[in-house]
Amino acid sequence: MPALAAVDPTLYGLALVTAEGKVFTDGDIETQVSIQSISKPFTMAKAIEESGPDASFGVIGVDATGMNLNSIISIELAKCVQGGPEMNAMVNPGAIAATSIVRGGTRPSRR
């Protein structure tokens, strides 16, 4: 993960938004860094919000693979052994599938 290797490890920033829209921030909130895998649960939540849990889980699945997050073998094993769905939203291939469920015709409209 070269993008993360260049980031100062002492940086810390936190933002909290209440249900009423009030924003609280602290720390290095103006610094831009790559969010990498932390985006996965938010993408899955958006997919569930838009399509419902049955549609989302029918495409992606929910079981932990027990393998590295970038494992391609886990997809093939799930297809062959378990009959699919072959991905979990917290592993890279599943995260890509979750992104495909989020509505929007263009990249900017999916943000």
Account of the protein in words:
This protein has 111 residues and is mainly alpha-helical. 40% of the residues lie in helices and 9% in strands. The protein is built from 5 helices and 2 strands, in the order αββαααα. Strand 1 (13-17) and strand 2 (23-27) form a beta hairpin. Helix 2 crosses helix 3 (53-59). It is globular, with a radius of gyration of 17 Å. The chain starts with a helix and ends in a 10-residue tail after the last helix. The relative contact order is 0.14. The mean pLDDT is 79.
3D shape: globular
Task: State the assembly state of the protein chains.
Answer: single chain
What is the string of helix and strand elements? HEEHHHH
The overall average pLDDT, rounded, is 79
Number of strands: 2
Strand adjacency order, main sheet: 1-2
Number of helical runs?
A: 5
Strand content: 5-15%
How would you characterize the largest beta sheet?
2 strands, antiparallel
Query: What's the alpha carbon Rg, rounded to whole Å?
Result: 17 Å
Q: Name the structural class.
A: mainly alpha
Percentage of residues assigned to helices: 25-40%
**Parts with pLDDT < 50 across at least 5 consecutive residues:** none
Span of the ends, CA to CA: 22 Å
Q: Secondary-structure map with pairings?
A:
Elements: H1 2-5, E1 13-17, E2 23-27, H2 39-51, H3 53-59, H4 73-82, H5 92-101
Antiparallel strand pairs: 1-2
Helix pairs in contact: 2-3, 2-5
